[in-house]
Write a structure and sequence with these properties.
It is built from 8 helices and 2 strands. It is mainly alpha-helical. It has 2 domains: 83 residues, lambda repressor-like DNA-binding domains (434 Repressor (Amino-terminal Domain), Orthogonal Bundle), CATH 1.10.260.40; 36 residues. A two-stranded antiparallel ribbon has the order 1-2. α1 packs across α3, α2 crosses α3 and α4 crosses α5. The longest helix has 20 residues. The two termini are 35 Å apart.
Length: 128
């Protein structure tokens, strides 16, 4: 299950990315992309025109793969949190809430440092 907080702009972003790819490769038509991700072309068209909300997490992940985009970024743009992140947050809700609130106002380079430190700490524990 995922949490949804629809953010306008998801469909426009998808359309812009798909059409940029289609300019060089005709296999990125609405019809062909829809077939590859397992939705009806009319549905994908409505999503792109923002007449429908974003599809499911599974379909967004498939769309990310098709468009060469980061799945977590597309999920965030769609206002969704992936099921694996939800599970991690549920394990330590207070800590993750505090962490996210602290990180939201930090400059990107500071957030990147926190991520590198977390990865480094995890690797050190695995090697111990």
């Amino acid at each position: 299950m995922y949490t949804t907080y629809y953010m306008p702009g998801f469909g426009k972003f998808i359309r812009r990315q798909r059409e940029a790819l289609r300019a060089e490769d005709p296999t990125f038509s609405v019809r062909k992309v829809a077939a590859r991700i397992g939705v009806e072309p009319s549905y994908l068209s409505k999503v792109e025109r923002e007449l429908e909300g974003p599809p499911s997490e599974k379909k967004i992940r498939a769309l990310a793969t098709e468009l060469g985009e980061d799945p977590d970024s597309l999920l965030a743009l769609a206002g969704k949190i992936s099921t694996d992140l939800q599970a991690a947050i549920r394990q330590r809700p207070q800590l993750f809430s505090q962490l996210i609130r602290e990180l939201k106002n930090m400059p990107d380079e500071d957030v990147q440092r926190v991520v590198r430190d977390a990865i480094s700490g995890t690797k050190k524990k695995e090697n111990s």
